[in-house]
Write a structure and sequence with these properties.
Layout (H helix, E strand, L loop, with lengths): L1 H16 L14 E4 L1 H11 L1 H21 L5 E10 L4 E5 L2 E5 L2 E5 L2 E5 L13 E5 L2 E5 L2 E5 L2 E6 L2 E14 L3 H68 L6 H36 L6 E4 L13 H11 L1 H21 L5 E12 L9 H4 E10 L7 H67 L5 H36 L6
């Protein structure tokens, strides 16, 4: 019967100390660090990779917010392009016939004066007026042929430099919605980072006290093993003396319990190493670091907080709820961004261009080589096949989905806090009863050992008394651990930055 009682002890305590993975093997060069709980939490927040990843998520969200804010600024870009085409750029003016119709025009009469001495001295002696009669001139129809002309426009080598600038004036609310959406994303990332830090705090506290628990259980097992070995020596002595009260079956039963205890003690010591190795990993220390825990006992602090206080605090402080609220803000802005598709967009634009080309004729005149333009553009949506309306409907559906998820999360957090508070009440009641039971079991063991020395009780009774003491002592330690772990989980769920 004693063996089965001890197996029950092992099943009870191994669930608290066991962790996934195997303990790290001790290295001759391994470091030894003594930690208390505040120091362990501080190191974990500095070194834990989950915390570091969440911090980078916040940085990425801030960068996205900065990208959204850039919509208020003009966009200016400059470019320069050098090019050589296969030949000089030209323009072919095709051959053409120019026709002039027949026409008649009249030359009116006119009078002109022949100056004196025009032909020689004294001839004519005086100015002579001469009058011409009116004349009619007939010009026949004529056709002139203009041959094909190859006109050079520019040389084949060009260097073009340009500067473009745009500034949105009105976006139908899209710009403002995207900025507020990015801001909500920053808040969601910060709340996720805060939740990660709270989770790291909880994991460190859970593993730290799991290490204390595993150390206490291993010590209980070693103490029980030492007492059982002493009982085995006494049993062997009583059996060999042949007093008749102790039989060989009693000796064999005692010996089997001792060997089982020896095996279980090794298992519990291995569990202690495993828990400490897991704690090292969570803190973010080097793999070959060994830790010594400053606490020898698991503290017990009764909490008088009622359920309503924790639920109310969770509704105001829970990072999960805050992150969902940020998601709701982003979803509302996403609806506005989708609705902006119904409205026109307007913006200013400007451009300056300079062309460097060695040709100075054709298109490459001084006025054409340097050019600039400014203007305003307006884009008005008229019909897009109901695409915008469906985008708005999709955004609203996502918003309603998040609103209902928020309500579900409220209920889930309230239920979880109820469960944790009830478990704390249970562990507070169990602490009193289990402490009294373990104390009574210790007294019972002492009485049975003294009585066994006087051959007043049977061997199985003293074995059961010692195993019962180990069972109740382990149960008491497990109650202490459940209480401190439950309080840490309650603080984590309710969003408390520091444990109470």
């Amino acid at each position: 019967m004693a063996r089965w009682i001890f197996l029950l002890v092992f099943a009870l305590v191994s669930s608290a100390g066991a962790q996934d993975g195997k303990p790290a093997a001790a290295s001759p060069q391994s470091n030894v660090v003594k930690l208390d709980l505040p120091k362990a939490v501080e190191l974990a927040l500095q070194n834990n990779y989950r915390s570091k990843v969440s911090k980078y998520d916040v940085e990425a969200a801030l960068a996205l917010h900065g990208q959204a804010l850039s919509a208020w600024w003009p966009r200016v870009s400059a470019g320069i392009t050098g090019s050589r085409i296969d030949d000089d750029l030209n323009f072919i003016f095709p051959a053409n016939n120019f026709s002039m119709p027949a026409t008649t025009f009249t030359v009116p009469s006119s009078t002109f004066v022949l100056p004196a001495n025009s032909f020689g001295p004294g001839f004519p002696p005086v100015n002579v007026p001469i009058q011409t009669p009116p004349t009619t001139v007939d010009v026949p129809a004529q056709t002139y042929q203009i041959p094909q002309q190859d006109v050079k426009i520019m040389n084949r080598d060009s260097l073009i430099a340009s500067v473009d600038a745009t500034l949105p004036l009105y976006t139908g609310g899209l710009r403002e919605a995207r900025i507020r959406q990015a801001k909500a994303g920053v808040e969601a990332a910060r709340q996720e980072s805060r939740r990660t830090d709270l989770e790291v705090r909880y994991d460190v506290k859970r593993l730290y006290y799991a290490g204390v628990l595993s150390k206490r259980l291993a010590q209980i097992s070693r103490d029980t093993l030492a007492r059982m070995e002493a009982t085995l020596e006494l049993t062997e002595k009583l059996y060999t003396t042949g007093s008749g009260t102790v039989k060989k079956t009693d000796y064999l039963r005692n010996k089997s319990v001792v060997e089982t205890l020896r095996s279980m003690t090794s298992e519990l010591e291995s569990n202690e190493k495993t828990v400490k190795a897991a704690l090292v990993t969570v803190i973010g220390l080097d793999w070959n670091t060994q830790v010594e825990l400053a606490d020898e006992e698991i503290p017990f602090t009764a909490t008088s907080r009622d359920l309503a206080v924790y639920v109310e605090r969770a509704f105001h402080s829970s990072p999960e709820l805050a992150r969902v609220e940020a998601g709701l803000k982003a979803a509302r802005e996403n609806v506005k961004a989708a609705q902006s598709g119904h409205y026109p967009k307007a913006g200013l634009f400007g451009k300056f261009q300079r062309i460097e080309n060695s040709y100075d004729a054709g298109l490459m005149t001084d006025s054409n080589k340097t050019a600039w333009a400014v203007g305003i553009g307006v884009q008005i949506p008229i019909f897009e096949g109901f695409r915008v309306s469906k985008e708005v409907a999709e955004a609203k559906a996502q918003l309603h989905k998040l609103e209902n998820q928020q309500k579900l999360l409220h209920d889930a957090i309230a239920l979880e806090i109820k469960r944790l508070c009830w478990n704390l009440e249970k562990t507070q009641d169990q602490q009193k009863s289990s402490f009294a039971a373990s104390k009574s079991a210790a007294e019972n063991r002492e009485l049975n050992v003294r009585a066994y020395q006087e051959e007043l009780v049977e061997t199985k009774e003293v074995i059961e008394a010692q195993i019962l003491e180990a069972l109740l002592s382990a149960q008491y330690q497990k109650v202490l651990y459940d209480h401190v772990e439950g309080l840490a989980k309650l603080n984590f769920v309710s969003g408390a930055e520091q444990p109470e």
